[in-house]
Each structure stands twice: as structure tokens, then as C-alpha cells.
Amino acid sequence: MSIKEFVATGEGAWAEFRKLEAEILEDLVKNNPVGAVIATGGGIVETGSAHSFLSSCGLPVIHLSRNMVDVLEALKDEKRAQLADDVDTLWKRREPLYRSAAEYEFHIYGMPKEQKEQEREWKKVTASFVRFVEKIIANYGKKEEEKEKKQEEESFFVCLTYPDVRKAVPLINDIASGSQAIELRVDLLACRSVAYVKEQVSLLKAYTSLPIIYTLRTSEQGGAFNGSEEEAYSLLELGLKMQCEYLDVEASLATSVLTKLAEKKGNTKIIASLHDYKNSVTQEQLQGLFQRCLETPGRDIVKVVGFAKSENDVYTLQHVRNTLGYPVPVIAILAGPEGSLSRVLNRFMTPVTHPLLPHKAAPGQLTVKEISQVRSLVFPAREHHHTQ
Fold first, then answer.
1. CA 290/CA 328 separation, integer angstroms
2. Per-residue pLDDT, 50
């Protein structure tokens, strides 16, 4: 008997179906603790016992979501059972349940209508999903100190400044050439609704296998986000659920927000950052910024950015950095034309721009090629990236 036939048997059929569904879920998990993928329907979270079980079973739970336009199209299939409520009502009721039951979320962005284009996109989505699951499996059950940690001696990340990632997709390989990661500036997107950001992240993950740095820069720190801390937490948590490899977290956020993010970080590395474009660069100012970042809950990387008013500020930064002795990687640069040398001297995860981007993410940003050319002259014995 199909689900459609079962729920059509009479009043109370849906409730009986949900009860059986929850019982079968628990039975399947208990009898298949390893080596199995258990797929459920979207309505399972509405059964209290099933939701509680998913939330506390200790196994990776993935919420597989999809573009709402495509969902509505799929619901037109006559083979599907008639929904108990209209789609909007169901989504409003279920969305927070999905969020609390699942540790991860994989989103499928909107598909084109043309068949050949659709097949091409599905291949990219499938490959992206395989990488997504492989990452979960690789780190499942491992303690933080057991997870693989890679740090390249010389590395860059390119900062995307497109309001819509779709415009970057045809150029992404060129834009990211020479970089070891891509930063998605969520605060610079055309829309910061959760639905829109999901589309952007999933699209970027489908078109590149490079690690993604998920950043929500506030206006106080030189960015464009002016929302509340509740909104900030919701968007930052999304970056964790979608398994972005890095999450840029401003150390100035409320301790409660920082702690919750640290508790949910999973496989994501947290970059604790502070950007001070207002105050003069002094040893005391820089030491204070570094210390606040170091004390951020869950931090894996420390990032401090000041604003240079003279070349001497770069020397001050380098002096302070050389005395840190921190047990974690450090990104230390100064924005502005006078601070460009600091970008050359920073060796780990230097933020860069590219000529194909609509604009730079910060004043004084350089390209991989520009930095590498200077390094080749100053440090000729070392190998450097020469791209773009």
C-alpha cells in the first residue's frame, strides 16, 4: 500500500501514519547503527517522539532542503499523498523543527527549466553533496584535537563582492586562481534572508571545491550588516549547518552568541576577528585586539585588521605579531594604501581581490599576482604563487 492510499483510508490516517513512521525510524536506527543511510519524509519532525529522537540520537542528521519554487513544482505530482495543510502553513510549522532536529543542512538551489541545463546542474549538486557527506563521515566521532589540521605556509583567500553569486559562477575558476579558499561576504549580498543565503552558499559549493569562508561583517567592523545580534546569530548558525569550512566570527559579539556558535561549530573552523579602522595603530591597541580574539570561545584562527596611516604602522604591527607566540594561526594586516606591505608580509590566509570582481572588499587589498611579485623581489629564495 502506498502512502497516498494509506492516508486516504479515513479520519485519523495521517496521525496513525506518523506514529508508525516514528516507530520505524527508531527501529531502523537501533538495528543499523553503522553503515546505513536512513532517509525520512519531511513531515517526520512533526511527531514529537521522532523529533526528540532525531535531536538526541547522537548520529549526523542532515536536513535536505530545496528551492521553494522547485518544491511547489514537485508537489504537483499526482502520485504524492494529499498534504494535510497548505504549503505555507506546513513550512512555517516545520522550518524551526528542521532547524532544531538537524545538525547539518544541504540545500539544493533553484534548477533551470531546460532539460540539458538541468542535467548539468544536477551533476554539480550531486558532486557537492558527496563532498558534503564525505566531510561529515571523515570527522564523525572525532575529538577536536583528532581532526585533520592543515596550514599552508603561504596561502590566500579571495573575497567575493558580488551581490549575487550567480554572476561569479562563470568566472569562479579565474577569480579563485592562486587562492586556497573563497570568502563569501554575506553582508554584501543583495538580500540577507535565510532562503536567499542558502541559495548563494549551495550554488558556490556546487561550482567550487575550495573551502568557503562564511563572513557576516557588521558596519561597526567595516561591513554592511546592521541587523540585530539575533539576526546575526541566525545567519552565522546557517554557515555552520551548511558546513562552510570557515566561519568568520567577530569577537565583539555578545559572549552568549559566541558561546552558542562555538558549541555548534562541528567541522567548521572559527576565525575570531576584529577590524578597527578608527583608532590609531599602537602596540597597546593591537595587543588588546589580539587578546580579545584569542579569548573568543571556539576560536581556531585569530584575525586582526587595523588601518594604517603611515608605513610605520606596518612595522608596529609586525613587532607586536612577532611577540605573540600564540598556539593558533594568526592573520594580521592593516587596511588602506599605507598598509599594503602588511598584506605582503602576512603569510597565512592573506585576503586578496581580483580584477574580475566588481570592487575590493577592503581598501588597500591586493591580488595574488601583486603580492607574489613583491615577495619574489624581497624573498627570492622562496616559492611564490604567480597567477592572474
1. 11
2. 95
